[in-house]
Amino acid sequence: QVQVAESGGGLVQPGGSLRLSCEASGRIFSIYAMGWYRQAPGKQRELVASITSGGSTNYADSVKDRFTISRDNAKNTVDLQMNSLKPEDTAVYYCNAEIQYTLGYPAQFYWGQGTQVTVSS
């Protein structure tokens, strides 16, 4: 079994910072792309940032220059450093990982349970 788990959400004032962490565990042969998505109330889930196993990154326009995604391939982790947070960043943040659990089988996408980020004064 493969598990993906996030941590690090919470309440922060506008302009503040938070760091989200995500770890994939279990039977893992290889992890390809990892990323962070978010879903605000009444809105669709959207991509925030993603990173390949080689370190190439992609960001939503709304978070460029404020958020930074990074990963540690040895630890199967991906982090999201969020700075200059705005009320519109309030959402449940989900970690996503493309994982091949054994050689010869196709990779699948796994989701974490989500962590709440609230930006409010």
- The count of strands amounts to 11
Strand content: over 45%
Helix content: under 10%
Envelope shape: elongated
Low-confidence stretches: none
Walk me through what this model shows:
The structure is a single chain. The strands form two sheets. Strands 2, 4, 5, 6, 9, 10 and 11 form a seven-stranded mixed β-sheet that branches. A four-stranded antiparallel β-sheet has the order 1-3-8-7, with no helix packed on it. The protein has about 120 residues and is mainly β. β7 (about 65-70) and β8 (about 75-80) form a beta hairpin. It is about 0% helix and about 55% strand.
Short précis:
It is built from no helices and 11 strands.
Q: Layout of helices and strands, plus pairs?
A:
Layout: E1 2-7, E2 10-12, E3 18-26, E4 30-39, E5 46-51, E6 57-59, E7 67-72, E8 77-82, E9 91-100, E10 108-111, E11 115-119
Parallel strand pairs: 2-11
Antiparallel strand pairs: 1-3, 3-8, 4-5, 4-9, 5-6, 7-8, 9-10, 9-11
How would you describe this structure in keywords?
single chain; 121 residues; mainly beta; seven-stranded mixed beta sheet; four-stranded antiparallel beta sheet; elongated
